């Protein structure tokens, strides 16, 4: 429900918000919630609800792009670690183990120096860091698949390494990928808030939940209610993304889904009966 509401608000904010984002009223700053401003106003007199609604689409864009970059980059790294050339595969593992120690904030700082704060910096930094984690965590399961009998049989029959990776390795690591990508989606929401607070996230004037949090947290002791709204939204969305990832894993992983195990058992039994009949 939380994720559905997030998508709906992001879509509605494309063409409607209660107040214009650039409407300010210097005589009514830090107002408490009222019928005209449901969540109150910020330090410039702008409507808090309008900025949070507009920020939902920015965070949704960052979340989707980061998940895509993480998935593509992580799979490329995983393919390198499973290369048939042993030296290249071992070198890839060593390089990934070394790079995985770099914190996302440091990567964002390095990128922000030449390119400046932007959504692209957040996506690139988080996609790079989360892709390393995805490849490292999925490697054991991918190694089991790559060394299995049916994969060796496919390779001996002329199947290419790319075909084996796409047809056998990726489907078998999909439950792990789902969990990791859902964690990445939740973590990037937190990362956007932290990086924006540090001044290397979204640019000033671009609505986002991190921007709303960063502009109001300075006055938390005077006007604590303005910090509650973006903090509450971020917390609910991160929890919802984590629960969503766990639900996807339970549906796709035969180890945790008894119905999926039963279906697989019936399919294998059917194949066995057909073989005996032949």
UniProtKB/TrEMBL annotation:
Membrane topology: Multi-pass membrane protein
Cell location: Cell membrane
Record's keyword terms, sorted: Cell membrane, Membrane, Transmembrane, Transmembrane helix, Transport
Classification via Gene3D superfamilies: MetI-like
Coiled-coil zones: none
Main location (coarse class): membrane
GO cellular component, one term: plasma membrane
Name of the featured protein: ABC transporter permease
Residues passing through the membrane, by range: 59-82, 94-113, 119-138, 176-200, 220-244
Sequence ranges assigned to domain ABC transmembrane type-1 in this UniProt record: 56-245
Pfam families membership: BPD_transp_1 (PF00528)
Domain of life (superkingdom): Bacteria
InterPro entries from the UniProt entry: BP-dependent_transpt_permease, MetI-like, MetI-like_sf
GO biological process: one example: transmembrane transport
Family per record: Belongs to the binding-protein-dependent transport system permease family.
């Amino acid at each position: 429900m939380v994720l559905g509401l997030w998508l709906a608000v992001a879509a509605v904010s494309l063409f409607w918000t209660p107040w214009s984002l650039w409407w300010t009223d210097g005589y009514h700053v830090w107002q408490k919630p009222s019928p005209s401003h449901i969540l109150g106003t910020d330090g410039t007199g702008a409507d808090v609800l309008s900025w949070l609604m507009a920020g939902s689409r920015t965070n949704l864009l960052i979340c989707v792009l980061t998940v895509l970059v993480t998935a593509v980059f992580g799979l490329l790294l995983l393919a390198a670690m499973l290369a048939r050339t042993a030296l290249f595969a071992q070198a890839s593992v060593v390089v990934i183990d070394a790079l995985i120690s770099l914190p996302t904030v440091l990567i964002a700082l390095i990128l922000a120096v030449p390119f400046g704060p932007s959504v692209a910096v957040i996506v690139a930094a988080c996609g790079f860091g989360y892709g390393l984690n995805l490849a490292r965590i999925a490697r054991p399961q991918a190694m089991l698949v790559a060394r299995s009998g049916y994969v060796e049989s496919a390779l001996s029959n002329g199947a290419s390494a790319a075909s084996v990776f796409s047809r056998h390795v990726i489907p078998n690591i999909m439950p792990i990928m789902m969990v990791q990508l859902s964690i990445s989606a939740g973590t990037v929401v937190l990362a956007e808030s932290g990086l924006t607070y540090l001044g290397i996230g979204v640019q000033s004037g671009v609505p986002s939940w991190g921007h709303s949090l960063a502009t109001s947290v300075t006055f938390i002791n005077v006007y604590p209610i303005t910090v509650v709204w973006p903090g509450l939204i971020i917390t609910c969305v991160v929890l919802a993304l984590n629960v969503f990832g766990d639900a996807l894993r339970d549906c796709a992983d035969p180890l945790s889904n008894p119905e999926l195990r039963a279906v697989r058992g019936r399919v294998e039994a059917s194949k066995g009966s057909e073989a005996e009949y032949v």
